[in-house]
Specification:
Blueprint (H helix, E strand, L loop, with lengths): L24 H4 L7 E4 L8 E3 L6 E3 L4 E4 L3 E5 L6 E6 L4 H10 L4 H14 L1
Parallel strand pairs: 1-6
Antiparallel strand pairs: 2-3, 4-5, 5-6
Helix pairs in contact: 2-3
The structure holds zinc ion.
């Protein structure tokens, strides 16, 4: 992806105060669908993704993942359209909530969060 917003724009404004919807710099400058921003505790590697560009469908773990300092993104493995942007800035409360919720992938998520913390 060459149209990634500069790192200093991320992650910043998650909620559009006018509509209450999540917004991204990317989204504001594009028409149509755009990569969905998630908090790390909401990310589920088993969640089914659908690419709006090439119709690829599959679980998030099969997407191509690129990691940055404060986020990673999941792109379509076929056409590289960015599908998800996940903030890796998590609070302990969020981490515990994710584990307590017990959704599919939460245990993996929690394990990854712990790895991230260990690297700091
Ligand atoms: Zn695609």
């Amino acid at each position: 992806m060459t149209d990634r917003p500069p790192a200093e724009n991320w992650p910043q404004v998650w909620i559009d105060p006018a509509t209450g919807e999540r917004q991204t710099t990317l989204g504001r400058h594009r028409s149509g669908p755009y990569a969905k921003p998630l908090r790390y505790s909401e990310y589920d590697e088993n969640a089914q993704l659908a690419c709006w560009n090439c119709d690829w469908r599959g679980p998030a773990r099969e997407g191509s993942r690129e990691s940055y300092e404060e986020l990673f993104d999941i792109s379509c493995p076929r056409c590289e359209t960015m599908l998800l942007i996940v903030s890796t800035l998590v609070t302990l409360e969020e981490r515990n909530a994710a584990a307590a919720a017990g959704h599919p992938g939460a245990q993996t998520t929690v394990a990854e969060m712990e790895q991230m913390e260990a690297r700091r």
